[in-house]
Amino acid sequence: MTTYLLAGGGTAGHVNPLLAVADGLRAREADATVLVLGTAEGLESRLVPARGYELLIVDKVPFPRRPNRQAAAFPGRFRRAIAQVRAHIRTHAVDVVVGFGGYASAPAYVAARREGVPFVVHEANAKPGLANVLGARRAAATGVAFGGTKLRGGEVVGMPLRREVIELDRAAARDEAAEHFGLDASRPVLLVFGGSLGAQRLNEALADSWGDVLAAGWQLLHVTGERSDLADPEVPGYALRRYVDRMDLAFALADLIVSRSGAATVSEISALGIPALYVPYSVGNGEQRLNAASAVAAGAARLLDDATFDGDAVRRIVIPVLKDPQRLSAMADAAGHVGTRSGTENVIALVDRALGLV
Questions:
Q1: d(Cα 246, Cα 180) in Å, to the nearest integer?
Q2: Which CATH number fits domain 3-161+341-354: 2.40.70.10, 3.40.50.2000, 3.30.70.141, 1.10.10.10?
Q3: Global pTM?
Q4: Domain 164-335 class?
Q5: pLDDT tens-digit series, residues 94-115
Q6: Of all helices (H) and strands (E), which one includes residue 98?
């Protein structure tokens, strides 16, 4: 019986692929022990136990970015975190560690190496985080979600995705999806969303241009986010939702998507073969623009600038795409060759290799 320790957390971008791999391991080996290492403060503290996995806690120790009091205390705090993980590894007789980035991963990589336990790294973003950059130097295997990711030994394995996305038959689910959102399955649908909290830039642009989308002969499914106070015009063909708990149905209905380009978003859209216009979030280290690069290079997507994305941009750029069926068809065809639904299996294959099973 194998004992796996999956390390990561903090954000959904780390937790969701971790849970996808955990589910894959549990489905393959009913008698395996699958444990998760995370912090008490991260999203994993809620999502991991809810999914039925034991969460082992490690202190949250951010890497210092500048010389200050926190930087002076970092070495001691990091040594303590490593000791915590080493104790977990010994107590549970862990056979292999799999890291997905975030605060839990850095001490997990060091602890695994010191305990003589092989470890695997998975990087979800095209621009890797510091923990995975360091971990990849000694990893038994390293997987990346996107081609071009600069990580030592990185192999493109794709993103471990939610089961409802992997198993989605878009054509078969289209009628159910249309009924769910009150739209017409026989007419094309533009899906616009910006994540669970929404994207103000996208919301404001569509508030000014939804009439143009409908005038182009398309329907609009607009997920504004829970914090949005955007008014619903309540007109036929425009479905406005604050939050959608069945994104699989939203994807089933989408003929074109306008969205941010977080790693999970790009991976899911690419895996489903849906053409997209990405508006990368301008705050951060530029990873959203890089996440979409492979889809753009393949002709499956186009990048739009956040700073200039408004109602006029929708009329100038998006509407012509809606009115060009040949271009849409070409984008959809390209999208079908960009993504993969086998990210979970590919990561598990790396784990098997680290264990010497293949």
A1: 9
A2: 3.40.50.2000
A3: 0.91
A4: alpha beta
A5: 999 999 998 999 999 999 999 9
A6: strand 96-99
